[in-house]
Amino acid sequence: MEGSISEMNIKSCSLHSVVVYKDRAEVKRNVSVFLKAGETELKLTGLSKSVDSDSIRVEGCGNATIVDVIYEMSEEKSSDAEQKNEEFQSLERELEEKEKELSFIKYRHTLIERQKGMLKEIAEHVTSEKKSDSDKVDVHFQSNLSPVSIKGVMIFMRRYEDKMADLDERLFHLNSHEKKMEAEIGVLKEKSSQLMAKSGTGKETVRSVRIVLKAAEDSDVIIIVSYVINNASWSPLYDARVFTKDKTMKLHYYGLIKQSTGEDWDNASISLSTAQPDIGGSPPSLEVHHIGFERARFVTRGKSRGVSLGMTAMSLSSASSRVPRNRRQAPDIHEYGEPHKDLFSGSAPRRSAPLEVDESKVATGQLYNASFTIPRTASIPSDNTEHKVTVAIIDLEPDFSYTSVPRLSSSTFLQAAVKNSSEYALLGGPANIFLDNNFLSKSTIPSTSPNEEFTTSLGVDDSIRIIVQPMNIVRGTAGRISKNNHLMYRFVYIVKNTQANVAKVKVLEQIPLSSDDKLKVVVHDPELKKPNINVPFSHGHCVLNDDNNIEWHCTIPPDTSVELSLVYSIDFPPNDMVTGLPNC
């Protein structure tokens, strides 16, 4: 029996699913077809140029056999070539009219400039006392506007000013019109060039895939065609809504999807993934990872072609028919099982049925290989514009604290330490911060795995006030013999909690760090002997951190003020100049 041929545009086939990766997407489409007994050739046209031809695979359900899968590219007459030609001619006519109008504007510009020149010559003659036969002024002007007649000169000057003002105004409008016309001509020329480039020879490249199927009897089958397509990406975005009264945070987790693949995804079941799709069917090779001592800077280091650990390969050849290049025959022929019971495939062994999972659940537990299923279908057009989809809304319990650096800013900044108690991996990305439903600021959410903690800044909070008292310096000498210069510094900060809740506040201040044994810095209050050792005081503790800065960690009751003081001395020889001393 002679085989039948069926043709359809792949973009008209319903979407099975779309998985969006960081720089591409995997698209699956359902193709429902009725097969008559014998051999049938199904041609799917309209493949986007962004499709990776090596990634195309075919699978499905039904009582039939995949005989061959072939990817083809051909040059065909453009369906809109005639329309583009008419559009091009219309642009050319419009461009010609605009250029004629521009030429007329320039001609009028030249005439007005000549009129101004003639007026200037007449004015120079009228206001000059010199008379000669060579004057080129009309006799009428000489008799009525003689330089001897002051009245006549004044009348002429008024007329001259009015006429010059009128000419200047006309020139101004002409110049504006000329610039506008030149801009319009530039736009038309650009459109014409683009249209000419698109039209080319009047032909376009058509990409298609031919699937040869064989059925023992008439039957309906469903084919799933999948392919990886470039020019698609996604990134995370968060809305962090903080409620100070309840001490809670609602984290709205979004995905911003952008694609210019050449095909629209209408009502698609979308998943977002951070994995890197692997088009090949074999696992990558892991080479030896050598380490050793660095010998010299001029030695060239060899580059290893290692593979990042923790990345799960997304093989696209499993249970699929990969497309042979250049009409290459698929090596094997596999038959369907019972109708609508098993997946059929053109090359690899059958897969077991996938496990059912809840919508919008994290499919993989690793932060750098996470995937999410969007609960609702979404439509993402090919417009290279970001479209927002909701991944999840997560309830979190933040631990609020405040940080102040009085030396650099008089503001106090609210921060939230949050444990990611959800099962979602949070990818690093920008966040809009809302405090009690009021937009506060923009911040970032760091990459955080489930059960990990992260800290995010929530902006300035005026409910914690820092009062900086004037710095006190006492100058003197130290030592009986050397008489070194001795400077005693005292800083006082008053921290006031105006809230109705207990507040945790961290205040930081610098302590000078000496770079010379002759320059000594001694901290007297509080008694900080060594770094990273807590020194308690009435409302918390203080510590000297690794940057030689003091940190006061205070727990302040409601409507309470706490005084923090720092006293240190600096000693140095009398004849030495010291840089970096704190100023008054």
Automatic annotation (TrEMBL):
<feature type="coiled-coil region">
    <location>
        <begin position="71"/>
        <end position="108"/>
    </location>
</feature>
<dbReference type="InterPro" id="IPR037291">
    <property type="entry name" value="DUF4139"/>
</dbReference>
<keyword id="KW-0175">Coiled coil</keyword>
<protein>
    <recommendedName>
        <fullName>DUF4139 domain-containing protein</fullName>
    </recommendedName>
</protein>
<dbReference type="InterPro" id="IPR025554">
    <property type="entry name" value="DUF4140"/>
</dbReference>
<feature type="compositionally biased region" description="Basic and acidic residues">
    <location>
        <begin position="332"/>
        <end position="343"/>
    </location>
</feature>
<feature type="domain" description="DUF4139">
    <location>
        <begin position="225"/>
        <end position="573"/>
    </location>
</feature>
<feature type="region of interest" description="Disordered">
    <location>
        <begin position="332"/>
        <end position="351"/>
    </location>
</feature>
<dbReference type="Pfam" id="PF13598">
    <property type="entry name" value="DUF4139"/>
</dbReference>
<feature type="domain" description="DUF4140">
    <location>
        <begin position="18"/>
        <end position="118"/>
    </location>
</feature>
<dbReference type="Pfam" id="PF13600">
    <property type="entry name" value="DUF4140"/>
</dbReference>
<dbReference type="InterPro" id="IPR011935">
    <property type="entry name" value="CHP02231"/>
</dbReference>
